[in-house]
Amino acid sequence: EDQVTQSPEALRLQEGESSSLNCSYTVSGLRGLFWYRQDPGKGPEFLFTLYSAGEEKEKERLKATLTKKESFLHITAPKPEDSATYLCAVGGGNYGGATNKLIFGTGTLLAVQP
Amino acid sequence: NAGVTQTPKFRILKIGQSMTLQCAQDMNHNYMYWYRQDPGMGLKLIYYSVGAGITDKGEVPNGYNVSRSTTEDFPLRLELAAPSQTSVYFCASSRTGGRTEAFFGQGTRLTVV
To answer: 3-class DSSP state for residue A28?
Structure first.
């Protein structure tokens, strides 16, 4: 069964305290792995796409990496404005004969305290 | 550039009522999706479409219907609303299926009482 699991469910950091969020996945025929940020009351906002093991993408204090079984979102020296829910999704799977499905994890709620 | 626009933002329905959630995108994307998000449960796919006139069920389609008569619009119909349909609904679109990022609307918060 296609599945995405994120850990931890919640993470509280002090400003400047670096950490990593994990996204483990099982999917038949990975087409892409996506990271999103979601603020309360808003829709998910796209951050990164990774396509193959070994690939890395960076944006400001965030860096996403990908292996064959999991992805990490590394947060370096976070600030309070980085507080949000971070969602991982994989594109792929075999659903109705088409590999068009985006499967989401349940997210990691990050709180960065000043 | 508006992106993905959902209306309404909030709605309260009584049990048994029906309504249509509207979704429009102006990016000429072929793929469109409807998700529901319940607290702690992540995003669950209700229906998706790979182009005008083509729709298919997602993980949780029961109690919902969709149509796609144009590339831009992908309305979600709730028939005979039930309390279990209380949720936040998100519409999204993408250029290709599963390989390019999806862009999301701001969501519709629906309460069924």
So the answer is: coil
Reading the block at residue B84, the tokens are 């279990």
List, for chain A, all residue ranges whose pLDDT scores fall below the cut of 70: 93-100
**What pLDDT does A98 receive?**
47
- In the predicted model, is pLDDT for residue B74 greater than 90? yes
Whole-number Cα distances in Å, A105 to A35, B66, B73: 10, 24, 27
Distance from the A15 Cα atom to the nearest Cα atom in chain B, whole angstroms: 25
| Mean pLDDT computed over B17-22 | 97
Return the residue of A nearest to B104 by Cα: A43
Task: Flag whether residue B84 sits within 8 Å of chain A, measured between CB atoms.
Answer: no
B20, B77 Cβ separation under 8 angstroms: yes
Predicted confidence at residue A29, as pLDDT, reads 79
Q: How far is B87 from chain A (nearest CA, A)?
A: 12
List chain A residues with CB under 8 Å of B99.
31-32, 51, 91
The tens digit of pLDDT for each residue in A12-41 reads 999 999 999 999 999 877 889 999 999 999
* Optimal mutation site among B27, B99, B100, B103, interface A, most CBs of chain A within 10 A: B99
Q: What does the CA dihedral A24, B95, B90, B104 come to, rounded to 10 degrees? A: 90
Asked whether the beta carbons of A81 and A37 are under 8 A apart, the reply is: no
